[in-house]
Amino acid sequence: MKYEIDTIPVWDALKAGTECPLCLLERRSRQAAVRYFLGPSVMVPEVRVKVNETGFCPENLRLLARDPNKLGLALISHTRLKALRGKFAAKIKAKGDVKKQIAALVDFLRNEETRCLIEDKVTLDLERYGFTLAHLWHQDADFKAAWSASPGTCLHHAPGLLEMAAKTLGGAPLAAFVAEYLQLLDTNLGRVEQDVLAFTQTFDSTHSHVLVGNPQGALDRCLQKLAGTFPEYEDEAKARKGPLMGTVSSS
User: Which letter does DSSP use for residue 170 in this model?
Assistant: First the structure.
């Protein structure tokens, strides 16, 4: 696959100073996909055919349900359910050994639940952004310096970035990128580990610990480093007017 370079979003995400620019790019991609599938595309026959055939996974369906456009969601959900019922009817008419029937139904239902148009779009976007990041690191000295001084990424996005670096770079540049990235990742995992330890120590009523690290927002940062973004957790942080997950606080 040929990837197009899209430098502005990657630069903007890096400058945002979050724990993982790819988390920010993923969130923006997912939000854009929600707006797309509940926007004018609701009335586009070709898009509706794709939605009817593939649908959305439970996680992204919940994101769609949080959008105020309830009519748009009802329209695409109705025809998706109608199409799904047609496929389901064909499965339940099958006769034969009941255990084989169960196995076939389980495979069918699980496959339908994991297929997702939004996830497909987000995956393609993240591949493009990973390609751009590796390209900028290799070609742009300013970006390389900014990347070296950044918090790196979360563990969730590390495999995809490493795979894309292997596709984009080669030889000495690839070896240099991987060595620098792994060191950047390890250094910042250590920072967050110390911060979340400091956070746990703030609950010690004896005040017997000398805090080494930044406890403010540490749990948010730790969870993101482990598993990427937590949209629900971020909503809670906004509600309590706390720090948004992933924002690097000064010590």
Answer: -
Whether 94 contacts 101, CB under 8 Å: yes
**Are 116 and 34 contacting, i.e. CB atoms less than 8 angstroms apart?**
no
What pTM value is reported for the model? Answer: 0.84
Q: Residue 230: left (phi > 0), alpha (psi -120 to 50), or beta? A: beta
Residue 110: CA atoms inside 13 Å, Cβ hemisphere, count?
6
pLDDT in tens, 170-184: 999 999 999 999 999
Calculate the average pLDDT of the chain: 89
Which amino acid appears at position 197 of this protein? Answer: L
Q: How far apart are CA 109 and CA 113, in angstroms?
A: 6
For residues 129 and 5, the answer to whether their CB atoms sit within 8 Å is: no
How many residues belong to the chain? Answer: 251
How distant, in Å, are the alpha carbons of 45, 193, 198, 219, 227 from that of 214?
A: 52, 10, 7, 10, 20
Please state, in angstroms and rounded to a whole number, the distance separating the CA atoms of residues 157 and 160.
Answer: 6
SS3 content of the chain, % helix, strand, coil (to 5): 70, 0, 25
DSSP one-letter string for 76-125:
HHHHHHHHHHHHHHHHHT--S-HHHHHHHHHHHHHHHHH--HHHHHHHHH
DSSP state of 146: H
pLDDT for 96-124, tens place per residue?
888 988 999 999 999 999 999 999 999 99
